[in-house]
Amino acid sequence: MTELAAPIIDPFIANTFRIVCLLFVAEVVGVCGIMTNVINILVFRGQGYQDGVNITLTALAVSDIGALISQQIYNLLLIPMIQETDLVILKSHLGVLVIYVNEYFVRVSSLVTSFASVERCVCVVMPLKVKSIITRKVVFTVNVTIFLVLSLYLFPPYFSIYLGLKIIPGWNRTVLSIFYQSYGESVLRLSYNFTDLLLPYGTFLILILSSATIFFQLKAKAKWRHSISSESLQSGKSVAPFKERKSVVMLMTVSIVCVLLVLPKSLMLTVGGVVREMKMDGAYKDITTIVYSFTSLLETINSSITIFIYYRMSTKYRTEFQKFFSVFKK
Prior knowledge:
By secondary structure, the chain is mainly alpha-helical. It contains 12 helices and 2 strands.
């Protein structure tokens, strides 16, 4: 009889790290993130939706709230006092159902961010045509379409399972449990290529290419502005491009932050799909637990910090933000 390999990291340490990272740190960040995204929505509503960017950023705030709420629910399931059979459904199985919802909203947020990045990229590359190409109606339609089409992400996992009663021998209880359909593994393996490979990495590629294009275009235009006379630079005509440039740089920053904070989780899931030992029930599950907890925290941070980027880099946002809170000071 072969002996099981000893874990690389003590399971107690791995579990403690997960609880501290998700149940404490991520919960605090997540609660703050939900509040800041609500503030974002109120500020953009106060600014109005004449600018299509505000529509996209409102959609981003909505998807971020969905990601944060679902992550909060998952984190609460880590409370040690809640036993596996204390709920109407096995605690670990409820976590599986919730985490798919979380991953849906994370993917929506990433794709909405990539659309905002492409929108600003078009603004920089074709400034005279952008108003006719990307209208408010187009922006609204694209954002709604992203939410609706990506809801198909939930179909393969939920189509592959069903809920049934399960008797827990040691607990003398019958609870709901997840059971996989006979075709479940085949469906999930097929959908994995799109939902966990093509979709996230395609989104990251769009974000990187758009940000790179914006960077080089702004750099080229900056050189051109330096080459013209100081009299032209001081004219009123240069003010509008400067404001537009600040908006572009702000969205480029949001895109870069999204890639830096969301990409690690996608890489981890890809490794888990290729290396059997790195799955949650694999030989290196202790390492997977730690990496998963940390990358989930990064996703929570990504969904929570946009307010600081907006406030720091957008004069219009800062003005409306201060106007909004000045009401409570009176």
